[in-house]
Every structure is written in C-alpha cells, then in structure tokens.
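Students often ask why we bother encoding 3D structure as a string. The short answer is that it lets us treat folding as translation between two languages. Here is a chain of 389 residues written in the first language.
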Amino acid sequence: MNNRKNVWASAAMIFMAVSMSAQTMGSPQQQHESVVVNIEVPVRVFKKNAFVDGLTLKDFEIFEDGVRQPIEAVYLIRNRQVLREEKTSAAAPPPPRGGRDFILSLDLKEYLPKAGEALDYFFANVIAPGDSLCVITPAKTYRFKPDALSKWKPQQIADSLKSKLKKDIQSGNSLYRSMMRDFYRLEEEEYPPEMLEIKEMRLFEQALQMRDLTVMTEKQVVAFADALKSMEGEKHVFLMFQKDVLPDHPFSFERQSELLKPVNFDVEKIKRIYSDASITIHFLYITKPPAFALKPESIGRPSMSFQLPDLSTDVYAVFKDMAKATGGLTESTGNPDFGLRHAAEASNHYYLLCYRPLNYQADGTFKKIEVRVKGDRLEVTHRMGYIAD
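And here it is in the second language, the structure alphabet:
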C-alpha cells in the first residue's frame, strides 16, 4: 500500500495514540456551569513583515462574541523566554513553562536540497532542551522525546533525518512517479485514427487514478485536531506540502472539470475545531512541482511547469484556512528553507494574552475572539476562538 497520500491518516493515528495517555477532561455534563476558565490567546503583530515587539497591555483590546473582555495578563515571549509581563490580576495564569511539542509534516514529492537546509536550521535554531518532536515523511513517522533529543547533537539528528527523508520520499512517492511515467508512455504510443478516442479514455482513467491518490477526509482531519488538543503545553505544527499536479495533457473542458476534486467536508467546522485545540499551525506551500511530473522534453524549461494541472487547490485552501484559524502563517514559496525560517520565527516570538470570559457558560457553542491592536497598518494574527465546553 502506498503511503504518500495518507499523511493525515497516519498523523491522526500517531496523535490519537499520544492522546490515550493524556488526562481526560470531564464532559460538559460533568462540569459545573459556574466554572471559571482562563483563555490564552497567542498574538503575533507585524508591520511590513517585521514583528512589533514594543507593545504593552494598553495597546491591546480583546473581544469575545463582540463583547470586550478584561485582559488579566500580557506576556511577550521569545524562544520560550518571557521578555516582559504585565498583570492586572494576582489570579492571572502564569506564563508557559517547560518544553514544547513540534510536529513537522514533510509531504514532499521529490527531495529538495533546500528542505535539507530547512532541517539544519530547525535543529540548530528552533528545537531546545525539553522540547519534543514528531516528523512525518511521505512514508514513515519519527518521534523524538526530550530525553532522546538530548542524547545527540542537533546536527547529527538533522543529518540522519535528511538521509531518511530522501529514502522516504523515494519510496512514499513510488506509485505517483510510476503512474506519471506510464501516462507519458501511453501518450507517446501510436494509435490508429479510429482508436484515438479509446486512447484518450485510457489517459483520462489514468489521470483519475492519480487524482484519487490524494485522500483527506473530515474524519481524519478532526481526529488529528482532537489528538493535538489532548497534548499538554505549547503545540506548533509545520505543514510543508509540495504542489500536487497531474500530467500535462490537453483534456477536453468536460474532462478537466471532472478531474477537479473539491473539498467534501465542512471547512468552517474544521476551522473552529483547530482554533479550539490551542495549537499553532503554519502552512508552508512549496510551489515548485516535482520535476518527474514534466514531460521529458520539458525538463530544463521552468516555464513549462506552470502548465501542469494543479491538484492542490483544495488542499491549499483548507490548510490556509486552518493556519489562519490557529493564528499561524501561510507561506507560498519555492524555497522550503525560507518558508520554515519565517514560520519558525513567528512561532518563537509572540504576545500571550490571558483573560477570563465574562458570564462564561459551558454551553458547547463556539466563542469568536477578536484582538485589536493600536497602531496603523498592523497585521494581527491569533486563534479564531474556542468551544465553551
């Protein structure tokens, strides 16, 4: 069975296993209606792509379902260090302590040297003592607990992972590569005029099979969020996804329309679930399609790559919405190293706002959060809200 297109399924299984050992929270029926909760909202503020680090408590306003809430604490955090803190209440929750959980999903169709440089940077500048890491490749999953990460030098782990990633990309994409090769071979075969429609139908059937290699169901996506929510502490997810394409072939308009694969689940529901899970997702969309997807005569001519039918439209839209709902970034780039550096910097540098919702009721509804920051032309990112359960 080919594993390249089952990243979400394998990730969900991994984190569901992790969640089995987590402490189970009481159901809404078991919680008292007057329970007091603390809501934490990581906030990132940028101006011309530069992080704005001179803000204080008076610069922030936070609203829940349109109602302004009293802010109890604001912490400025960089690389797990609290650089500045302001509190309006002695009961304000303390700043986060301890390690972080990182999930690095590398859905690449071919090995890119810049992806190796991204791993070098990640282990040299992001992972710190006490952190844990889960790396998902197109074929396997590798888990590193804090004690395991402390046994080896960061560069040793990065080098080992780069070697494994090359092999996993090759094995995990073997069916995709084979089907792409077979398609172009069939396209080159000579058919008599009266058989051309049959040839076209065979090509279309092969394209449909390639399209259906990609599997992402609502159940898998929800399970992934549920498992992440059960994990304690800070959780940072980096989704690196390389553009998925079909062979370059002039199908009829009707057949091109049939090859499109729209999202078949409730995106708004997914956004609320991921926002509620208290995680930060950064989506790194690698715009460069795999070289093996090009016709042999097109290799070496980069402009031809943009003519390949794009299968990633649905994935891009969903992942971008998920990232935004969690307060994360979306980067579209041909350079994995640049994308990961930018996302990692955003993950490491943020304000943490804490408040207790006024008149809180555990009614199971979604509470929308809005953070306003004083200043002109500022870009503010934060989680979309939470489910009051």
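Translate back mentally: Residues 1-34 have pLDDT under 50 and may be disordered. Keep this in mind for the problem set.
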